[in-house]
């Protein structure tokens, strides 16, 4: 009985920590691109981020002014090497050490650098030289971190487009393109050995572009739809995001790396584009990002990864007026450069749940060929839709493959409303458990002291 008070105290503290974790939002991040000439100063951006529930920021480079501005904010920072740096990083360990000495050591730990991404969407760049040198570059960056005694504190990975998948529908049959298999195995072995995440860029927006039916738009925007049943698992998917992430989950598992964490390094929806762009609108962007945030906060997870939310970086913090490609590539920001919201996606700390978003706004334009760009290297690729509803890509830049899981509207309840209700239920449940556990602890303590 002597240990009873300590046991009760330990259990109570453990429970409080569990509740804290369940209600934290460390899984919400945002991409901070800098291909623009009108962006606000980093210090202003740091203050903006602190006024939101955003806990992580992904940079496509390693701008020292931004890294320094985020010091002592607690915000996790992802920094990246350029694709053009990969050959040098792969062939010269001293270059990797120099990169770490320049871009990490002057700022860490005041600036909470959590991940270094070596290149962006290299595997689908069609540059065989870069593809072959990606893993050696990652290994040299990891070795440089190890030499600086930061190997267990800052992770190293790379970011992939959905184009690395050969099959993504149904989600349970997700598999990597055989042409990338050996290289992907090496990258996953690296992730597994170093505890780093497998980072992917799923875009339901690209799926909608190749299948512009209203029911597909609803499925992509987390709005009422009939869903799509995976014939293998009999699981009904109610949104494209979950389906795409679970396809990656299945592909990873098929390679034997179930322990590797999956991170969504980039996803979003443009609010405006060119006349030929299909799907961009304020209503659709607000619906996708707002409902995605509510879905993440619900802690429901995906059907194959239930009970937790995947770390997700929204695209993007600001518009980038100098970015090449179609207008939709430049107009995906959640905030204006004057630091006001373009639309309210529910990121304000005073607004922790997102009200049901507006109905989707289908575009009257139908197109089968579009152009996308990679944020990191600004190269382009051509995406051509096929009759099967699967979008594949070819070209010199970022390849994209999107699963188009079709659905039709019916009287199903709104997925976004369901997620919002789950947020409230989780909070009520946690408070109820806390109240009950506290009473139980006090009763145990009472009887303990009564017997002593």
UniProtKB/TrEMBL annotation:
Residues 1-24 form the signal peptide. GO terms for molecular function: glucan endo-1,3-beta-D-glucosidase activity. It holds the Pfam family Glyco_hydro_17. The keyword Signal applies. GO terms for biological process: carbohydrate metabolic process. It is an enzyme of class 3 (hydrolase). Residues 354-395 have a biased composition (Low complexity). Residues 349-395 are annotated as: Disordered. InterPro entries: GH, Glyco_hydro_17, Glyco_hydro_17_plant. SUPFAM superfamilies: (Trans)glycosidases. Keywords: Glycosidase, Hydrolase, Membrane, Signal, Transmembrane, Transmembrane helix. Its EC number is 3.2.1.39. It catalyses: Hydrolysis of (1->3)-beta-D-glucosidic linkages in (1->3)-beta-D-glucans. The keyword Transmembrane applies. The chain crosses the membrane at residues 424-450. Belongs to the glycosyl hydrolase 17 family. This is glucan endo-1,3-beta-D-glucosidase.
């Amino acid at each position: 009985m002597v240990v009873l008070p300590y046991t009760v105290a330990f259990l109570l503290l453990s429970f409080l920590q569990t509740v804290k974790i369940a209600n934290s939002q460390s899984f919400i991040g945002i991409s901070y691109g800098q291909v623009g000439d009108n962006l606000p100063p980093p210090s202003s951006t740091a203050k903006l981020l602190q006024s939101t529930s955003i806990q992580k920021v992904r940079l496509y480079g390693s701008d020292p002014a931004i890294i320094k501005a985020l010091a002592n904010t607690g915000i996790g920072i992802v920094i990246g090497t350029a694709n053009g740096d990969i050959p040098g990083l792969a062939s010269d360990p001293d270059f990797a050490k120099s990169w770490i000495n320049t871009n990490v050591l002057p700022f860490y730990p005041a600036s909470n650098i959590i991940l270094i991404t070596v290149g962006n969407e290299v595997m689908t760049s069609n540059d065989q030289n870069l593809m072959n040198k990606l893993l050696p570059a990652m290994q040299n960056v990891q070795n440089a971190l190890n030499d600086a005694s930061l190997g267990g504190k800052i992770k190293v990975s790379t970011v992939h487009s959905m184009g690395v998948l050969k099959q993504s529908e149904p989600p349970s049959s997700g598999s990597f393109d055989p042409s990338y298999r050996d290289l992907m195995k090496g990258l996953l072995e690296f992730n597994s050995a170093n505890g780093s995440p497998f980072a992917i860029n799923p875009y339901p927006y690209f799926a909608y572009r190749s299948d512009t039916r209203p029911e597909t738009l609803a499925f992509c925007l987390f709005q009422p739809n009939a869903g799509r049943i995976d014939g293998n698992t009999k699981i009904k998917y109610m949104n494209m995001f979950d389906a795409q992430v679970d396809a990656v989950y299945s592909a990873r598992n098929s390679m034997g790396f179930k322990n590797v964490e999956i991170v969504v390094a980039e996803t979003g929806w443009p609010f405006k584009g060119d006349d030929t762009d299909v799907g961009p609108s304020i209503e659709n962007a607000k619906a996708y990002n707002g409902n995605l945030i509510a879905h993440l906060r619900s802690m429901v997870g995906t059907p194959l990864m239930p009970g937790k939310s995947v770390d997700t970086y929204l695209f993007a913090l600001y518009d980038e007026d100098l970015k090449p490609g179609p207008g939709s590539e430049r107009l995906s920001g959640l905030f204006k450069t004057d630091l006001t919201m373009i639309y309210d996606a529910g990121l304000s700390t005073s607004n922790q749940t997102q009200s049901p978003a507006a109905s989707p706004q289908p575009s009257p334009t139908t197109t089968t060929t579009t152009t996308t760009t990679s944020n990191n290297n600004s190269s382009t690729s051509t995406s051509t839709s096929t009759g099967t509803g699967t979008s594949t890509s070819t070209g010199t830049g970022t390849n994209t493959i999107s699963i188009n899981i079709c659905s039709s509207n019916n009287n199903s309840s709104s997925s976004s409303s369901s997620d919002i209700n789950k947020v409230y239920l989780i909070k009520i449940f946690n408070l109820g458990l806390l109240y009950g556990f506290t009473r139980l602890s006090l009763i145990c303590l009472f009887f303990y002291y009564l017997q002593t």
